[in-house]
Amino acid sequence: MKIFQQILDLNQRRRGFHIITNEVVNALPQIGEIKTGICQVFIQHTSASLSINENADPTVRQDFEMYFNKVVPENDPDYRHDDEGSDDMPAHLKAAMLGSSVTIPIRNGRLALGTWQGIYLCEHRNYGGSRSLVITAWGE
């Protein structure tokens, strides 16, 4: 069994959904040494999230942003946590809905994503800053 782990610090991105698959793969080239295994990507933040979805058509990512803004609006008068701005509590809720990690099979030294799948960084803050990911891969 081989186990590899790396921290990936992503540069700040604008609010929205961003494909980060290549950055994840490039951060942990040891994935190539694993024939059969698992890769977990975990985000160390509570106002951004990770997801796997469409990697080809950018309108999918735009529609994700539109949908989540409708479902979890800013400036809801019922929010109590509002010290960090109108986008903060909605960001926490969106992150809880989407999740803090993704798990991807490794097959023959590559992430076994489907043809149209990519890893999304889901940035829910207007100015979220840099984001840190812990990437762990294990297998044989």
Automatic annotation (TrEMBL):
It comes from the Bacteria. SUPFAM superfamilies: YjbQ-like. InterPro entries: UPF0047_YjbQ-like (IPR001602), YjbQ-like_sf (IPR035917). Transmembrane segments: none annotated. Pfam families: YjbQ. Belongs to the UPF0047 family. This is Secondary thiamine-phosphate synthase enzyme YjbQ. It comes from Mucilaginibacter aquariorum.
